[in-house]
């Protein structure tokens, strides 16, 4: 069924991509990529039809066997954010179903149509009634009812830290297992021995993909003081080349923010930073009038003169804004990177193997990209440290919370 479901998504790829561009505001070429990425979880988790394994252990007593048997949790609840409504939906659907569970999925109220379109294809793929379900509505009502229900064996959530905390508190009443993939504030560390052009290009890609609305995005850029000048010059020039416009138009690189609420949040962060002494090297304001008369647009922005204690360096911006700070040496860079309540992802650009090994050991994140930008593998492990979550998604580890274990002691004589 999962394989057939993936084939059906393939057949409607253009319809899904257009719907994504309209729902989220991401450029059409990015929407194409999300559809392809999303459907790949169907095919990957379908392979687990032969990979869900238990254990047979030596028994302590003669004429006995000791088994550890994996079994479904029963009913799973998936609650997802609005930024990748197809990819994150399938990220929950495929492991939940291959583990033998039924799933109730609640998409974000801003982007429910993609999940409903997936549900239509589920019927066509032969998924039995009641095995995959979509319920729509606000988190404050529908989501709250789902997480407070005694029925689910697991709640798998992707979204904000504060909502994740609320879900964990509500689930505690029934001791329901929770898997929380929460927000991020990824540091982007640029050392003086790196390929400067590659670092600039990746910094831009990692920040402005999906209008900056990615939990593993480059949220704060730290540059070694020895190369800060040329890095910033190249960064600003590259950001000023970004084409902002209609997500359905060819050549668009950044579309609108998903909603007015999100736009106002970004606007507030930038205004507060500038009032506190930061400087907008480019951008820094809402785009309005002309082709921007409708929708919620913010200019791609580079800020300098920021301080580590500013909200823009401590709270998730989730928009097309990159604050840049200098640091003196690798120790200071590590300290700044770790100075955050978040611990989802980080980026490091260096060719020094000693620095690489120290970063692997010392950076307090669940995901580390070295000399590359974002681009997760579906068989990896997408998990956060600190307040970026518990549990996670993808691969064999992302399957674990959809299963529970039963230990069997069998005396056969």
Task: Walk me through the structure.
The protein folds into 2 domains: 2-182 and 388-411, Aldehyde Dehydrogenase, Chain A, domain 1, CATH 3.40.605; 186-370, 3-Layer(aba) Sandwich (Aldehyde Dehydrogenase, Chain A, domain 2), CATH 3.40.309. 38% of the residues lie in helices and 22% in strands. The protein has helices spanning 2-11, 13-24, 28-46, 87-98, 113-125, 139-148, 161-172, 196-208, 228-239, 260-275, 311-314, 330-338, 353-362, 395-399; strands at 55-57, 64-72, 75-79, 102-106, 132-134, 154-158, 177-181, 186-190, 218-224, 279-282, 286-287, 297-298, 301-304, 321-327, 342-343, 345-349, 367-370, 385-386, 389-390, 403-411. The chain has a 7-stranded mixed sheet with strand order 10-13-14-9-8-16-17, with helices on both faces. It is globular and about 80 Å long.
Topology:
Layout lengths: L1 H10 L1 H12 L3 H19 L8 E3 L6 E9 L2 E5 L7 H12 L3 E5 L6 H13 L6 E3 L4 H10 L5 E5 L2 H12 L4 E5 L4 E5 L5 H13 L9 E7 L3 H12 L20 H16 L3 E4 L3 E2 L9 E2 L2 E4 L6 H4 L6 E7 L2 H9 L3 E2 L1 E5 L3 H10 L4 E4 L14 E2 L2 E2 L4 H5 L3 E9 L2
Features:
single chain, 413 residues, alpha/beta, Aldehyde Dehydrogenase, Chain A, domain 1, Aldehyde Dehydrogenase, Chain A, domain 2, 2 domains, 14 helices
Uncertain runs: none
- Quote the distance from N terminus to C terminus: 41 Å
Lateral arrangement of strands in the main beta sheet: 10-13-14-9-8-16-17
What percentage of the residues does DSSP assign to strands (E)?
A: 15-25%
Text of the CATH class of the largest domain: Alpha Beta
Q: Kindly state the number of beta strands.
A: 20
């Amino acid at each position: 069924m999962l394989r057939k479901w993936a084939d059906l998504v393939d057949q409607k790829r253009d319809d899904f991509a257009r719907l994504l561009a309209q729902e989220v505001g991401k450029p059409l070429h990015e929407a194409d990529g999300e559809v392809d990425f999303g459907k790949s979880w169907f095919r990957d988790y379908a392979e687990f039809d032969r990979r869900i394994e238990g254990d047979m252990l030596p028994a302590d007593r003669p004429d006995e066997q000791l088994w550890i048997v994996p079994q479904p949790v029963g009913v799973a609840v998936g609650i997802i954010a609005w930024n990748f409504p197809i990819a994150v939906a399938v990220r929950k659907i495929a492991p939940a179903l291959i583990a033998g569970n039924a799933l109730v999925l609640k998409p974000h109220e801003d982007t429910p149509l993609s999940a409903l379109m997936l549900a239509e294809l589920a019927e066509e793929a032969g998924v039995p009634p009641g095995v995959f379900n979509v319920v729509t509505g606000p988190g404050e009502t529908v989501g709250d009812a789902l997480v407070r229900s005694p029925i689910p064996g697991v709640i798998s959530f992707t979204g904000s830290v504060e909502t994740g905390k609320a879900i964990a508190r509500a689930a505690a009443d029934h001791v329901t297992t929770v898997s929380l993939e929460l927000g991020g504030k990824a540091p982007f560390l640029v050392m003086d021995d790196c390929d400067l052009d590659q670092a600039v290009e990746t910094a831009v890609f990692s920040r402005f993909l999906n209008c900056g609305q990615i939990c593993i995005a480059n949220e704060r850029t730290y540059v070694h003081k020895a190369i800060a000048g040329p890095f910033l010059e190249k960064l600003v020039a590259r950001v000023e080349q970004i084409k902002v416009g209609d997500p359905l138009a060819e050549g668009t690189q950044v579309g609108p923010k998903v909603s007015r609420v999100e736009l106002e949040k970004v606007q507030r962060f930038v205004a507060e930073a500038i009032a506190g002494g930061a400087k907008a090297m480019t951008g820094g304001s809402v785009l309005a009038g002309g082709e921007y008369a409708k929708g919620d647009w913010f200019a791609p922005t580079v800020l300098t003169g920021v301080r580590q204690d500013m909200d823009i360096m401590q709270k998730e911006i989730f928009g097309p804004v990159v604050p840049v700070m200098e640091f003196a040496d690798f120790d200071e860079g590590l300290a700044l990177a770790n100075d955050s309540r978040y611990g989802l992802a980080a980026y490091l650009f260096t060719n020094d193997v000693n620095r690489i090994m120290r970063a692997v050991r010392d950076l307090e994140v669940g995901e580390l990209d070295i000399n590359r930008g974002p681009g997760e593998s579906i068989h990896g492990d997408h998990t956060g440290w600190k307040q970026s979550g518990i549990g996670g998604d993808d691969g064999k580890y992302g399957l674990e919370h959809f299963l529970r274990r039963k230990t069997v002691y069998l005396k056969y004589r």
